Amino acid sequence: MVVTAFDQGALVADAVGSVLRQTRAPAAVIVVDDGSTDAESVEVLERLSRDPRVRLLRQANRGVSAARNAGIAMADTDLVAVLDGDDRIAPMFLERMVAVLEGDPGAVAASSWLRAFGVIDAVVRPGGGAAVDFLHRNASPATAVVRRDAWRACGGYDEEMRSGFEDWDFFLSLVGQGGHITVVPKPLIEYRTAPGSANVRSMDSRLELYGGLVDKHRAVFERHLREVLLALEARALDAAGRWEDLVAADSSLPVGDVTFGDGGMAAAVRIAVRRG
């Protein structure tokens, strides 16, 4: 089990504690300190290093991708789990993920639904799947159990990606030439949400980052171009439908500019009829 840490204070101890409470104990717990400088974080990591079940690897700050790669490289097991230092896993996580991978040779990684906590309280249900399922959106949480051979074969996490989407990129590399990622339909990951999290910040550059994925994995996108375009259109229709229901139900909400060529005119007509 690899836990990455960078200036996360006592949260890392919570993450490691969740690993040590697993019903299937990991062969080793490798905590990769990605150059923490915060005094509390350094003290917490030092305390964790005194636990004989924990191996602490320190490195200069190089980003989460480099930290994960370093931890996985240090592991000597066929299956390796990764966990961010501000998240947690339920006690059954490793047992369920290992069972999935042992029972399905075509699965290159396994993860689960998430229970988000912090700013929001919600169960989030990614679907996993093969390459085509990862082309229009990321379909797996970052916390996952990965076949180490598959990690090595695809080149690992891209250490140049430090602005976001490194998980999505890695999963596309994993399944780009075959195989799939299984997501267990139970919330076995406890995912911390915060206003300034990397996930939230990456949305400011979503189009740029997604364009980079298209460029890097162009061959996979070209093979599945029709499915990608239809999946993106389906997502747009779903979002528009939910907006339409909301505005139609509350006449105080403005319809806004009526757009052309994307279903906007038809939506405005339906809203007017439903309000009338």
Output the CATH class name of the largest domain.
Alpha Beta
Number of strands: 9
Domain module count = 2
Largest beta sheet, briefly?
9 strands, mixed
CATH superfamily of the largest domain: Spore Coat Polysaccharide Biosynthesis Protein SpsA, Chain A
CATH topology heading of the largest domain: Spore Coat Polysaccharide Biosynthesis Protein SpsA, Chain A
- The class by helix and strand makeup works out as alpha/beta
Helix content: 40-55%
What string gives the helices and strands in order? Answer: EHEHEHEEHEEEHHEHHHHH
This entry's quaternary arrangement is single chain
Q: What is the second-level CATH architecture of the largest domain?
A: Alpha-Beta Complex
Low-pLDDT regions:
none
Distance between the termini: 59 Å
Mean pLDDT: 96
Topology:
Elements: E1 2-5, H1 11-20, E2 29-34, H2 39-49, E3 54-59, H3 64-74, E4 79-84, E5 88-89, H4 93-103, E6 107-118, E7 122-124, E8 144-147, H5 148-154, H6 166-175, E9 180-193, H7 198-202, H8 206-216, H9 218-223, H10 225-249, H11 264-275
Parallel strand pairs: 1-2, 1-4, 2-3, 6-9
Antiparallel strand pairs: 4-8, 5-9, 6-7, 6-8
